[in-house]
């Protein structure tokens, strides 16, 4: 009798797993299945699910085929799901926000054919060592790409040729020693670029082209100041108001420009912008002779007035102007990174 009573009190198999929370966000049905120990998608998800949170489960592998019949799905969160494999077998035509951060992905399949509507893609904090040249082909709507905290060592020159609408690109805290010329070609809408925390020695001549970049992060690299650094040095001088030092917990629009955070590893942490270049040949892209910089040091200078603005076209400085360098530069190279993760477009405070 006691055994019968115990069996009666045990939960039935149909209720052995906690149910997902379901709510309505505007016109979209939002389903939250986070942190429930799931190894696969629940079988009873609502067919009209528009936003699906599956983070902090133990999926291991994931295929878009498992969601092919969810025709309203626009956002998918697979953060911290112990993913080692991602397959794009079926098309998710409305998915515009995909989060794959804090997993164990070592490679990516081609994404564009299955996910043509993506505007936000977060693959940060994975184990990616390389990206195939065509992995982003078809992602013509992509606006934000987060690749920070992987093991990327190099990038193919045409990697971003298919993503011409990119405005935020995060490549911080990888293992890149160099960047290919032409990597940013065609990215006319780019306004925020994270390159800090890599192993970069220099920037190739012409790398930034004519881009107007209001927010650039370059600290924590191994910049080597010799004659090959002159293009980059000149760019820093002409864009000193657009170079920042990342601070944990701060929104990018609240930061103060800090061009002195970009330092020469071979010259006692001298700021790159003040490298004199004495004895280097004068090239056609230089606006000011190297002798004019012989006496530069890490001290304030006089600035032509440029007002701060978050407008991507108004915030940049102008070629040929001698701009003020920060009066209180940080004296130490930062230890990067904070763990910041992007959210969707409705909450821009933690995107950058």
Question: How would you describe this structure to a colleague?
Answer:
There is one protein chain. The protein is built from 2 helices and 13 strands. It has 352 residues and is mostly beta strands. The N and C termini lie far apart (63 Å). The model is unreliable at 1-17 and 286-352 (pLDDT under 50).
Overall pLDDT level: 81
How many H/I helical runs? 2
Helix share of residues?
Answer: under 10%
* Proportion of residues in extended strands: 5-15%
The termini sit apart by 63 Å
Rounded to the nearest angstrom, the radius of gyration is 24 Å
Largest sheet: spatial strand order: 1-2-3-5-7-8-9-10-11-12-13
Question: Main β-sheet: number of strands, strand sense, barrel status?
Answer: 11 strands, mixed
Oligomer: single chain
- The residue ranges in which pLDDT falls below 50 over 5 or more consecutive positions are 1-17, 286-352
- Class based on secondary structure composition and strand pairing: mainly beta
Using the alpha-carbon principal axes, give the shape.
elongated
The secondary-structure element order is HEEEEEEEEEEEEHE
Strand tally: 13
